[in-house]
């Protein structure tokens, strides 16, 4: 069995309230093994026979809509992919752990899409630093997430991919539990 983490977007923010106990129960009803949640923002660890993550992402998005009436983007990554999301983040050891994020993307943006995001954002004069990874966008929110104009919608419009983000602190906790 492979160990995975499902990163749900839009859980326990913006009115989409869901208890982690209910989310765990939904996974268990779908016969996933060793289900565990980490932090109350929609991080679910589970074991399952090796399967392409895209199929799992679709299954979980459907499950959220069907059982909880919540539209949510879901990024599913293996333990190795979570480790890579930390190790390949060029800001992980330079910035503050709570301000350095990995945005898990639904697909791989083109170089041109990434360059447009960076160029458009630089014109605004903001301080964030960005780098592109494999189905990831790495961001150092130098002045903090609460003050940024580099919002989720802004990123989605330019990269043409939905995403959900976690900071380095959360990712290290998740990896430790995996």
Automatic annotation (TrEMBL):
Coiled coil start-end: none
Lineage of the species this protein comes from: Bacteria, Pseudomonadati, Pseudomonadota, Alphaproteobacteria, Sphingomonadales
Protein's name according to its UniProt entry: DUF1697 domain-containing protein
A Pfam family the protein falls into: DUF1697
PANTHER family: BLL4334 PROTEIN, DUF1697 DOMAIN-CONTAINING PROTEIN
């Amino acid at each position: 069995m492979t160990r995975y983490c499902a990163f749900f977007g839009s859980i326990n923010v913006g009115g989409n309230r869901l208890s982690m106990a209910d989310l765990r129960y939904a996974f268990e009803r779908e016969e996933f093994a060793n289900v565990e949640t980490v932090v109350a923002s929609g991080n679910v660890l589970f074991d399952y026979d090796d399967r392409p993550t895209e199929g799992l992402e679709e299954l979980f998005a459907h499950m959220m809509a069907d059982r909880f009436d919540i539209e949510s983007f879901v990024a599913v990554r293996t333990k190795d992919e979570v480790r890579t999301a930390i190790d390949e983040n060029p800001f992980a050891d330079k910035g503050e752990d709570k301000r350095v994020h990995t945005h898990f993307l639904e697909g791989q943006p083109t170089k041109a899409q990434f360059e447009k995001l960076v160029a458009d954002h630089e014109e605004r004069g903001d301080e964030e630093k960005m780098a592109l990874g494999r189905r990831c966008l790495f961001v150092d929110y130098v002045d903090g997430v609460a003050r940024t104009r580099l919002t989720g919608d802004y990123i989605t419009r330019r990269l043409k991919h939905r995403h959900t983000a976690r900071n380095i602190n959360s990712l290290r906790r998740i990896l430790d539990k995996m």
